[in-house]
Design a protein that fits this description.
Mean pLDDT: 95
Radius of gyration: 16 Å
Order of helices and strands: EEEHEHEHEEEEEEEHEEHH
Distance between the termini: 25 Å
Largest sheet: 6 strands, mixed
CATH architecture: 4-Layer Sandwich
CATH superfamily: Ribonuclease Z/Hydroxyacylglutathione hydrolase-like
CATH class: Alpha Beta
Number of helices: 6
Number of domains: 1
Strand order of the largest sheet: 1-2-3-4-5-6
Low-confidence stretches: none
Number of strands: 14
């Protein structure tokens, strides 16, 4: 399934973890921002310039999961557009307590505010913007509230740190579960067509079909 030329995905590789921040928009100018991890001032300016240059109107600020490298830039989106982050309800404990502790371990003094969600996502929810929608698919494992955002009409999905090209997200962290991530991956490969393009939280894009053939973790399911 080929993505429409009016449906655009812009990737920004940001912060010391080389995290992938995405701006997704269509011809209406409405956009969603996924995993805004912009940390350095230059990254923040580049993201805002893109939004301005394309005359985009962000309407949702989405998180695939609540790890520190995926939230660094949430404050600039809140300050500019009044949007608060939205993450799956099962990651609420990470978002509201653990993430502050983790950032304090990494940075002696973190220079930005961290806006918190007012509402949380649930499995099966639909995120509407412009003429498109993203379906929330709960994929616990890397974190309890990890999700895919899937646009069926365009055949694309945003996998966060659950699925990478030839790899999967680590389960060696606090709140992670190896059993859960394998169950989530099994669900995903049953649910999404092989031609679905996957935009991960780190690294380059891939497809479900490619991962079935070349990802040793998926081949083991």
């Amino acid at each position: 399934m080929a993505s429409s030329p009016l449906f655009k995905v812009r990737q920004f590789i940001v912060n010391p973890c080389e995290e992938c921040t995405y701006v997704v928009h269509d011809a209406t100018g409405e956009a969603v921002i996924i995993d805004c991890g912009t940390y350095y001032d230059s990254e923040r300016r580049r993201l805002l310039k893109y939004l301005d240059d394309e005359a985009l109107r962000p309407v949702r600020l989405l998180l695939t999961h609540a790890h520190h490298d995926h939230i660094y830039g949430n404050d600039i989106i809140h300050d500019r557009y009044g949007l608060l982050p939205e993450v799956h309800i099962n990651d609420k404990p990470l978002m509201t307590s653990h993430i502050f502790k983790r950032i304090a371990e990494i940075y002696r003094k973190y220079p930005h505010e961290i806006p918190l969600p007012k509402r949380y996502l649930v499995d099966g929810e639909e995120i509407c913007f412009g003429e498109h929608k993203l379906s929330v698919i709960h994929t616990p494992g890397h974190t309890p509230g990890s999700v895919f955002f899937y646009c069926e009409s365009e055949g694309v999905a945003f996998s966060g740190d659950t699925l990478f090209k030839r790899d999967i997200g680590t389960t060696r962290l606090m709140f992670s579960s190896e059993e859960d991530i394998y169950a989530s991956l099994d669900r995903i490969i049953q649910l999404l067509p092989d031609e679905t393009v996957i935009y991960p939280g780190h690294g380059g894009k891939t497809t479900i079909g490619y991962e079935k053939l070349h990802n040793p973790f998926l081949k083991a399911i």
